[in-house]
């Protein structure tokens, strides 16, 4: 079965779920990745929300972080030139979101019951 092959290197949690539901054929699987980049803006283009600081799917904080970032960027743009505003926004958001972004291996361990 494809699910058996795909889950060979899965965590113990995933293996346990699959074992407990052997007759289920409607599993959804996808790959979770985090991409880290050096900067969130270039000239007049800026990344906001999950495009800049992808919160874990399990934190429940993605939307509030996106609104927080949009608000900080709007304030910065009203007070300074564009490039300085984007740098200020990024600096503030990297500081405030760094504690909320959990590395994926940590997420997997936290799901075990």
How would you describe this structure in keywords?
113 residues, mainly alpha, FAD/NAD(P)-binding domain, two-stranded antiparallel ribbon, 52% helix, elongated, disordered C terminus
What does it look like?
- The protein is mainly alpha-helical and 113 residues long.
- The protein has a domain at 35-102: FAD/NAD(P)-binding domain.
- It contains 6 helices and 2 strands.
- It has helices spanning 2-6, 12-20, 50-53, 62-79, 82-97, 104-110, and strands spanning 41-42, 45-46.
- Strands 1-2 form a two-stranded antiparallel sheet.
- A hairpin with a 2-residue loop joins strand 1 and strand 2 (45-46).
- The two termini are 26 Å apart.
- Residues 106-113 have low confidence and may be disordered.
